[in-house]
Amino acid sequence: LVIDELVRRGTPKHAETAEDLLHLMEDCHCDKLSEILPKSDTTDQDALELTSSIGVYNAVMNAWARAIKSTNDPLIAMHSAHRIEALLRKMAENEHSENNLPPSPTVTSFSIAIDAWAHAASITVAKGDISGGQVAAKKAQALLDELQHRRFEFCSISASCFGSAIKAWSSLCGKSEDGEYANRAEDVMHQLIEASQSFRGLYVPLDIIHFNNVFDAWARELAAIKPDKSRGSVASVVTNMQHAIKQMRECNNIQPDTSSFNHIIRACYAPWAARGEIGNDDNRSVAMGLVVEAYMEMTKDGNNVYRPDAHTYAHMFKAIACLLPSDSLSSDDYAEKLVLCKTIFESCCREGQMTKSAFWVLSKLFRDENEFLDFLLPQLSGYVEVSKDRLLRLKDDSLYKFLPSEWSRRGRNYKSLNSHMR
Asked: SS3 letters for 152-164?
């Protein structure tokens, strides 16, 4: 009960106290405790039989894990993760001892440790310590490799271990120009698929979030690639994503969700969004074709699983902005761009997914403000009577508030897309 309370408080100090108590339980036996505790006729001798069970070890490890989640200090995070691994190593090294103390580690023990290193990696990278993040990610991977070597029965907890390793490598994505960390995250995803299929034919449903974390990793990795080097990279990465989706459906009976396709769309324009460079026309054309392909998949008839959401439309307008820059288009290509904008805009409004962010990006897709208002006025027809001159006098934020509320009936729930015009 004392250790449980220390776990609940979730600070490094309380985690350290919990570990001290654990070591006291290891060192003290009933005969020693009887000398320490006051004698009483009502003392229950059975209550003095303190055993360091696996539950106690996991609880202390969890105390350190909660300490990591309560901080953004890389030193505290790394120290806490080291303490967790030290406890795990102690269990692993002494699991064949005669008195079975400490007890053998379980899948849960590995899950706590791997997840701890994943959080430590994220915290250290966020503070700019890339080398520290690499150390933490490698620690998470090493523990995952050891877990697989032990051949535990595959279950939802062991699946989460793979997910934590994916998060560890994903936290480093965008910090290299060769896709190293996204490749490592993708490797773990394939290990997860293989593990879920190979163990005694048992079926354990996999969480789509593990796959989406890999897709997100690739999108962030592509943001570090220069536009003129992006053609093969974007096409290759999106092909990998599409193959992963096919695997999910055929081998693991998992349906991609809206986030899966949003990451694909974001990956396609990421090299251009990060730098604001136009780059090669052919490269942008290949990427735009992949964007349209993903969007058409989301909007096809009969699909109710991964319909476009507010993020989808925001990404689509950003993709058009990055991949179809107005200044580089011929008159015919620019006309096709406006048709595409109109189609997506009408769908966005019909679904009630308009947001401030999407509207702001849409307004920048035109060569000047007059042209944008000429595009917008017909869409407002039937909702509100307003002149172009009046719209010209409105600022961006005021113009957005002027739109019919039903256009944003769902989109207004996305706070990150409505915090400001951008």
From this structure: CCCCHHHHHHHHH
